[in-house]
């Protein structure tokens, strides 16, 4: 185990040191209760039953029974309390860790999200944190108790008779060897079985997915055979590890009784001069039985601890990448921008030195509209991602209203920029929440934005209107409808700069007309940038910026560029010709 | 479902019987060690006199444990074999059934839902079988055997008094278990909600940032996380309450046995050894008592799963005989005739197809073109009887297709669908679709015809390359050609291509079409496409719009009509240029 891992664990548990100490103390009391019980029976056997008396002084067997029951109650109630406390500590640690992790993910910048697949983050927040929960739930609740139990048990046994203890401890190495060996074998068996199970499940999932194909080609016979073959393999793969699982307790019973036999032999033959009361022998026998459980449990849990430690490392590796966090506090807060955009010799690369934008300069005045034109990969989308500082540029500067965007507070910068992505994201929330995006809005205001974005008819046709909850990722809505909702979002937030990445997806003509209406409405007053796919959009803008391989090759309005006889004019002409 | 279940249980009744016998023997053997220890304790009071006897008993003690181990292994073997057999056979049966269910019914169930029948519901039933057989038997035999041993070896009254708390506790524990189940289900729901939320958050990060909603997203997350936390705590605390209750119960039993047992010792009714043995017997009950609530809650879970599976078995199925394809010898010639066919999906009033009249003879090629959702694919689905068609509507070789057994019909029609779904196995199996009676030569030939041979040859393991393994991802065009090669392999007399050329470039497409033409010279071929180029050389072309045949003829006559077909033609000749802007 690396030092780093230890310090990470410590960091995790540190705030809970006090409760953990209290839990340990309670565990000690529980253990003492637990171990006094057989001793009470020893007293009954040696001091009362052997002598044939019921009462010795004031102490009767009845009183001892009462004490016994008292200890049972005390021990178990304390046990319940300490378990509950441990659970709460564990869940609290997990709760805080999960919040921290999620906060990191939300506040991390886009380059971080580009580098870390969403699936990985998902697994970190759910499964990996859950692994750590197991650490607390299964391990911490028992491990403190078990360790204390073993220590106290061994001490008492040595105190009672160190010679007999030494003899009985002879079986402990065997317990450990058997446990470790068999646990490993079980693990191996299950790993194999798990692989087959995965195969079977993939087979089932694919068959379900391709059921129509199976029906069309009449391959039911082959598929049925394959299914039976896999289920058979899976059944057989399970029997091995189950047998090993059964073997372990069986071997432990043998060792346990062997221990009892050793104790008996020692007493009978007076080995090492051992000569004890029958009651003590009883106590020994009971203690030997008790020592098995905690040892086994600790060995079983080693695996869980290792897995949890791996998960802890994975989570902290994310949390420690502080350089990816965005700073929301810094910078000038600007309520409302005019909307002037200037790029001055901007150089940008996602990866070092692989320039995506090379020395890009242009100006868009407040209220003007501009279209970015160029082939896929020419840097159109990149430009829009730089304006709202999803990425930081390496050279040059970007100015809004003459202020370098690096000096503007990120939140207020983004509030001033409204962007519609090709495939707008719709949350699994109500239409209203999807539009307001956590801004306080009255129903009437929401409806007004729907009217402005021409989404009114579509929303009204939903059974619950603006309170309709969307399916996961808005799957219940078509691409066009999602676009309309995204436009409503823009109207609701009224930014100074509007960026639209035109959808290439199939949108029916009616919806397309509605979208066009919204575009016209918005771009009337705002500085607008379009990543355009339709010529109709491009022709009408104030400025066309033609990009090729990250460089601006031409800029100007439509007429200028057509007369220019450059790339854009050839593009336009070939299109124009194809129409005739 | 009931018959299926009974059949499976009946098949394994022998194994289950052995399991019960072995568990009973195991239980009986378990009563020996406490008894022997008791005897040893008694003998220890006079070591010198009983020395050899004591030693013999210790051998006896260890020996019994070895026998116990052997019996235990037998039990575990039967336990595992029986439950896994039930699982295996139930899975097989459900799978068989799913393959037989009518497509129209099957498509109403989500794929994830179908999958959960296999991974969840079958397992719940398996667990019930396992728990009833192992734990149930264990509980009953413990009560009987340990009870009788205690009463006969020690004392009846003592047995009754001590066992009282155990019975009461079993009841209490079952009640608590109900709470645990409930809060467990709740925490599962909350956890799923949290997971979905995280998924949404990571997917929507750009939108969230653009609107600066990070703080609100976090607040919502914390709210959901808190729910997970508190429901987890509830589940855990309830479960630990079960342990506490059981421990207190057995503590009480021991306490009672100390008091009453020692009185019996003092009265000389039992020996000290019996007294010690009695405590040992009590320990035998701990396991079974803590398992029994699990059996009951499992019964409830399995009940729900049983009902769900029952639903699958009650869905209407196709009349189909499952047998190897090579055993289907009947051949169809390939004349298709459709008479006044109208169709609406079950539970829908709207007609998908209306008044379709059509005749294609063997050796002819039919081209179908139409707008989105004009009923092209539905028509094919009916031809293959994937959906139910009325009598007197569709005839093949003059026979009503309802009179042709489904397996024969489908063996004689090769329908290549538009979704190019591939299984994650080798390319070869994806082409042959798991039939192993094709010659390698034929498979190679079919890939050559589909213009994918060269692509396959360049792959690391050729035709045996496994899809999806180590980044072997095929492009859309490659996938489509792979799927097309299935048509060249299957020697059916009716061959249908449903929009299967869309991802091919012009040159490849041309060659594939040429090969299709020469293959189908003496066969019936139907090509459905939105591209004029795919169908313009067909012997007959029909144009579908909203379920109706609006135009029919050959390419030249349709162009001259200046109708929908002409519009398609015009659109497509300009469209190629339009994409320049990207």
Largest two-chain interface: A-B, 142 and 132 residues
Number of helices of chain B: 20
What is the CATH first-level class name of the largest domain in chain A? Alpha Beta
Largest sheet of chain B: 6 strands, mixed
The value of Rg of chain A in angstroms is 37 Å
Count of structural domains of chain A: 3
Overall helicity of chain A: 55-70%
Question: Helical amount among residues of chain B, as a percent range?
Answer: 55-70%
Gap between N and C termini of chain B: 56 Å
Number of helices of chain A: 20
- Named CATH topology of the largest domain in chain B: Rossmann fold
Q: Could you tell me the mean pLDDT of chain B?
A: 87
CATH superfamily of the largest domain in chain B: P-loop containing nucleotide triphosphate hydrolases
Termini distance of chain A?
74 Å
Strand content of chain B: 5-15%
The level-1 CATH class of the largest domain in chain B = Alpha Beta
Give the averaged pLDDT of chain A, no decimals.
86
Please name the fourth-level CATH homologous superfamily of the largest domain in chain A: P-loop containing nucleotide triphosphate hydrolases
Written account of the structure:
The complex is a heterodimer of chains A (580) and B (582). With 580 residues, chain A is α/β, with parallel strands linked by helices. The longest helix of chain A is centred in the middle third of the chain and has 49 residues, at 220-268. Chain A has a six-stranded mixed β-sheet, sandwiched between helices. In chain A, strands 4-3-6-7 form a four-stranded antiparallel β-sheet, with helices on one face. In chain A, strands 1-2 form a two-stranded antiparallel sheet. In chain A, α1 packs across α10 (278-319), α2 (17-49) runs parallel beside α5 (118-160) and α19 (558-564) crosses α20. Helix content of chain A is 65%, strand content 11%. Chain B is of the alpha/beta class. Chain B has three domains: 1-154 and 294-317, ABC transporter type 1, transmembrane domain (ABC transporter transmembrane region fold), CATH 1.20.1560; 155-269; 332-576, P-loop containing nucleotide triphosphate hydrolases (Rossmann fold, 3-Layer(aba) Sandwich), CATH 3.40.50. A six-stranded mixed β-sheet of chain B has the order 6-7-8-3-9-10, with helices on both faces. In chain B, strands 2-1-4-5 form a four-stranded antiparallel β-sheet, covered by helices on one side. In chain B, α3 (32-44) packs antiparallel against α10. The radius of gyration of chain B is 36 Å and the shape is elongated. Chain B starts with a helix and ends with a helix. The interface between A and B is large, with 142 and 132 residues.
């Amino acid at each position: 185990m690396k030092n780093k891992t230890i310090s990470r664990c410590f960091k995790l548990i540190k705030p809970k040191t006090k409760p953990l100490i209290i839990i340990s103390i309670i565990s000690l009391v529980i253990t003492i209760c637990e171990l006094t019980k057989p001793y009470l029976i020893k007293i009954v056997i040696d001091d009362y039953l052997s002598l044939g008396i019921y009462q010795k002084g004031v102490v009767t067997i009845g009183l001892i029974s009462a004490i016994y029951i008292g200890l049972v109650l005390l021990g178990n109630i304390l046990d319940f309390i300490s378990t509950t406390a441990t659970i709460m500590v564990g869940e609290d640690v997990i709760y805080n860790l999960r919040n921290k992790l999620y906060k990191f993910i939300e506040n991390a910048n886009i380059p971080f999200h580009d580098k870390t697949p969403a699936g990985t983050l998902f697994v970190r927040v759910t499964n990996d944190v859950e692994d750590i929960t197991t650490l607390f739930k299964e391990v911490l609740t028992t491990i403190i108790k078990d360790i204390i139990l073993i220590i106290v048990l061994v001490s008492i046994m040595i105190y009672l008779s160190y010679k007999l203890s030494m003899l009985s401890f002879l079986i402990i190495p065997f317990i450990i060897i058997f446990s470790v060996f068999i646990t490993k074998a079980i693990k191996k068996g299950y790993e194999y079985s798990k692989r087959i199970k995965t195969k079977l499940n993939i087979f089932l999932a694919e068959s379900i997915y391709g059921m129509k194909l199976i029906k069309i080609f009449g391959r039911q016979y082959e598929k049925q055979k394959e299914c039976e073959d896999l289920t058979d393999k899976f059944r057989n793969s399970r029997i091995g590890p189950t047998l090993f699982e059964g073997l372990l307790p069986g071997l432990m019973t043998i060792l346990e009784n062997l221990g009892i036999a050793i104790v008996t032999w020692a007493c009978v033959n007076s080995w090492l001069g051992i000569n004890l009361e029958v009651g003590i022998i009883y106590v020994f026998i009971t203690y030997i039985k008790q020592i098995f459980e905690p040892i086994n449990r600790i060995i079983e849990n080693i695996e869980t601890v290792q897995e949890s430690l791996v998960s802890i490392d994975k989570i902290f590796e994310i949390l420690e990448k502080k350089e990816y966090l965005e700073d929301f506090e810094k910078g000038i807060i600007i309520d409302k921008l005019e909307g002037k955009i200037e790029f001055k010799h901007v150089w940008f690369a996602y990866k070092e030195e692989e320039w995506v934008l090379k020395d890009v300069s242009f100006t868009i005045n407040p209220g003007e509209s501009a279209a970015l034109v160029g082939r896929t990969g020419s840097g159109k989308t990149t430009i829009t991602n730089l304006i709202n500082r999803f990425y930081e540029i390496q050279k040059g500067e970007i100015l809004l209203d003459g202020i370098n965007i690096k000096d503007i507070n990120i939140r207020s910068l983004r509030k001033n920029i409204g962007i519609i992505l090709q495939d707008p994201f719709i949350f699994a929330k109500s239409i209203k929440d999807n539009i307001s995006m956590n801004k306080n809005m009255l129903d009437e205001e929401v409806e007004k934005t729907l009217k402005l974005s021409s989404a009114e008819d579509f929303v009204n046709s939903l059974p619950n209107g603006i309170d309709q909850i969307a399916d996961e990722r808005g799957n219940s809505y078509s691409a066009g409808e999602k676009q309309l909702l995204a436009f409503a979002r823009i109207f609701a937030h009224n930014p100074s700069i509007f960026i639209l990445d035109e959808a290439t997806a199939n949108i029916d003509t009616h919806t397309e007309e509605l979208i066009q209406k919204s575009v016209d409405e918005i771009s009337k007053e705002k500085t607008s940038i379009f990543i355009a796919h339709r010529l109709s959009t491009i022709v009408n803008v104030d400025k066309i910026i033609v990009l090729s391989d990250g460089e601006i090759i031409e800029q100007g309005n439509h007429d200028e560029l057509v007369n220019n006889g450059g790339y854009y004019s050839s593009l336009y002409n070939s299109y124009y010709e194809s129409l005739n | 479902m009931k018959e299926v279940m009974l059949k499976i249980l009946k098949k394994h009744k022998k194994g289950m019987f052995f399991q019960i016998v072995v568990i009973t023997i195991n239980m009986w053997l378990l009563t020996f060690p406490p008894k022997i220890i008791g005897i040893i304790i008694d003998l220890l009071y006079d070591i010198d006199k009983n020395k050899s006897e004591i030693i013999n008993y210790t051998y006896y003690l260890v020996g019994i444990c070895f026998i116990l181990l052997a019996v235990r292994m037998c039990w575990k073997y039967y336990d595992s074999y029986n439950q896994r057999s039930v699982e295996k056979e139930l899975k097989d049966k459900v799978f068989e059934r799913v393959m037989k269910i009518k497509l129209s019914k099957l498509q109403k169930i989500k794929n994830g839902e179908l999958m959960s029948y296999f991974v969840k519901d079958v397992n719940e039933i398996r667990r019930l079988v396992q728990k009833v057989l192992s734990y149930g038997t264990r509980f009953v035999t413990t009560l009987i055997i340990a009870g009788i041993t205690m009463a006969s070896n020690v004392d009846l009254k003592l047995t009754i008094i001590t066992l009282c708390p155990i019975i009461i506790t079993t009841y209490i524990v079952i009640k608590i278990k109900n709470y645990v189940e409930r809060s467990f289900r709740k925490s599962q729901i909350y956890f799923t909600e949290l997971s979905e939320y995280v998924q949404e958050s990571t997917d929507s990060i750009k939108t969230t940032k653009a609107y600066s909603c990070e703080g609100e997203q976090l607040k919502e997350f914390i709210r959901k996380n808190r729910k997970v936390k508190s429901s987890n705590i509830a589940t855990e605390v309830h479960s630990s309450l079960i342990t506490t209750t059981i421990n207190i119960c057995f503590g009480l039993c021991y306490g009672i046995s100390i008091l009453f047992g020692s009185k019996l010792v003092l009265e000389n009714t039992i020996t000290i050894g019996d007294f010690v043995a009695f405590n040992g017997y009590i320990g035998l009950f701990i396991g079974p008592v803590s398992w029994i609530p699990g059996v009951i809650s499992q019964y409830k879970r399995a009940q729900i799963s049983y009902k769900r599976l029952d639903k699958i078995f009650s869905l209407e199925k196709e009349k189909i005989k499952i047998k190897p394809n090579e055993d289907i010898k009947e051949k169809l010639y390939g004349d298709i005739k459709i008479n006044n066919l109208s169709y609406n999906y079950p539970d829908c009033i709207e007609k998908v197809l209306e008044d379709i009249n059509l005749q294609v003879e063997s050796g002819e090629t039919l081209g179908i073109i139409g707008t989105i959702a004009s009923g092209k694919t539905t028509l094919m689905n009916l031809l293959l009887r994937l959906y139910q068609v009325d009598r007197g509507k569709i005839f093949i070789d003059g026979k009503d297709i309802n009179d042709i057994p489904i397996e024969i019909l489908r063996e004689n029609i090769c329908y290549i669908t538009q979704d190019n779904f591939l299984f994650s196995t080798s390319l070869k199996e994806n082409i042959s679709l798991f039939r192993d009676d094709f010659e390698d030569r034929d498979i190679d030939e079919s890939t050559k015809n589909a213009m994918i041979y060269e692509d396959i040859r360049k792959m690391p393991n050729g035709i045996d390359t496994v899809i999806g393994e180590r980044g072997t991802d095929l492009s859309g065009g490659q996938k489509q050609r792979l799927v097309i090669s299935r048509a060249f392999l299957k020697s059916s007399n009716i061959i249908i291509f449903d929009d299967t050329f869309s991802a091919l470039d012009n040159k490849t497409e041309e060659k594939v079409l040429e090969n299709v033409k020469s293959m189908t010279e003496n066969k019936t071929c139907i090509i459905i496409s939105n591209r004029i180029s795919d169908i313009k050389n067909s012997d007959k072309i029909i144009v579908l719009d909203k379920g109706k045949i609006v135009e029919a003829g050959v390419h030249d006559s349709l162009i001259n009509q200046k109708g929908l077909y002409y519009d398609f033609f015009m659109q497509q000749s300009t469209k190629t240029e339009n994409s320049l802007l990207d």
